[in-house]
Specification:
Blueprint: E1 2-3, E2 8-9, H1 18-41
Antiparallel strand pairs: 1-2
């Protein structure tokens, strides 16, 4: 979501599975670190706030045993 007047943006990530997310992080960690450093260096973000994360229980995913209970 974008607010032109306030120059505020909201980023939301959605993943099909927790294992898919972890695989992405493992493969692209260096690129993610470079992007984060660029954002800091260019002062593109004034404030960042992590709002939370949750898992949807999907019995067909086969991932339930690896997830941390809420």
């Amino acid at each position: 979501m974008e607010s032109q007047a306030e120059r505020r943006y909201r980023l939301q990530d959605f993943w099909a599975s927790h294992l898919g997310f972890e695989a992405f992080r493992r493969i692209h960690q260096l690129d993610c670190n470079k992007l984060e450093q660029f954002i800091k260096r260019e002062e593109l973000v004034i404030r960042e706030e992590f709002l939370g994360a949750f898992y949807v229980d999907d019995p067909d995913s086969g991932e339930g045993d690896e997830l941390v209970p809420s």
